Amino acid sequence: MYELDPAGHETVLHSFTLGADGGLPYAGVIRDSAGNLYGTTSAGGYEPFWGVVYKLDPTGNETVLHSFGCGAFDGCVPYAGVILDAAGNLYGTTHEGGTGRGVVYKLDMAGAETVLYTFTGEADGGSPYAGVIRDSAGNLYGTTYLGANGSVVYKLDTAGNETVLYTFTSATSGFLPYAGVIGDSAGNFYGTTLYGGTGGWGVVYKLDPSGNYGVLYNFTGGADGGTPYAGLIRDSAGNLYGTTYYGGKSGTGVVFKLKPQ
């Protein structure tokens, strides 16, 4: 874990050992108002080494908040990071564990974990790579990579009830969302899929509050890029920004902007 100052100087804040402190972090970090950093690693922790949720304070001291066990009552291998609510609770997902297809979990300020939902890998989806976002009412939203009927966009309410908002069933509409979703003030969601679309190289999509799904852009794999692993950010004018893994002038990906129209 590192810090980069405005002049481009790097400071290593913590070097993971792949031991009890964790190792192999896929996700980035979030920061609270006191300067503490929170994140996940996909491996390490206490035996059987299935990953951790950690906190790093401003002086560089790491605390393992939770070490995943990968049993029926715990997830494991968290590829996604965490989000933080106003009360200091953390929320995230694991790719595996629970009944075998991953979980959505909550960690309170004391580090006590609650599994909010266990994916079955059936119509409800399974094996999420992406994390979650949270609305003002406390509902969580995210995507799963797999599912018996296809990948899904889901909602998880505060009682732990899951609603599938959309199932990716058509290759031409995109499939296999690696990234999660972002939302706007009107209740719309936006995201990317790794593959599919008319060109087969993935899409940018929009899902409205009524469940209507629309493809905003089809990647061609050429100069415009293709295979977006990452999700999106959105500015106040409604422009969307993201990256692709392939394509572009050199074939090694692009940074793109997509206008509302």
Summarize the structure.
The chain is mainly β and 261 residues long.
Describe, in plain words, how this protein is organized in 3D:
The protein is an all-beta fold. The chain has a domain at 1-120. It has no helices and 23 strands. A four-stranded antiparallel β-sheet has the order 3-4-5-6, with no helix packed on it. The chain is globular, with a radius of gyration of 18 Å. The mean pLDDT is 96.
For the CA atoms, what is the radius of gyration?
A: 18 Å
Taking pLDDT < 50 over at least 5 consecutive residues as the criterion, the unreliable ranges are none
The N- and C-terminal alpha carbons lie at a distance of 39 Å
Number of strands: 23
The SSE order reads: EEEEEEEEEEEEEEEEEEEEEEE
* Shape designation: globular
What is the helical fraction, as a range of percent? Answer: under 10%
User: Strands of the biggest beta sheet: in what spatial order?
Assistant: 3-4-5-6
Give the helix tally: 0
- Provide mean pLDDT, rounded: 96
Proportion of beta-strand residues: 25-35%
As an assembly, this protein is: single chain
Based on secondary structure, the structural category is mainly beta
Q: What is the makeup of the main sheet?
A: 4 strands, antiparallel
Helix and strand topology:
Blueprint: E1 2-4, E2 10-12, E3 30-31, E4 37-41, E5 52-56, E6 62-67, E7 75-76, E8 83-84, E9 90-94, E10 96-97, E11 103-107, E12 113-118, E13 132-134, E14 140-143, E15 152-156, E16 162-167, E17 182-183, E18 189-192, E19 203-207, E20 213-218, E21 233-234, E22 240-243, E23 255-258
Antiparallel strand pairs: 1-2, 3-4, 4-5, 5-6, 7-10, 8-9, 9-11, 11-12, 13-14, 14-15, 15-16, 17-18, 18-19, 19-20, 21-22, 22-23
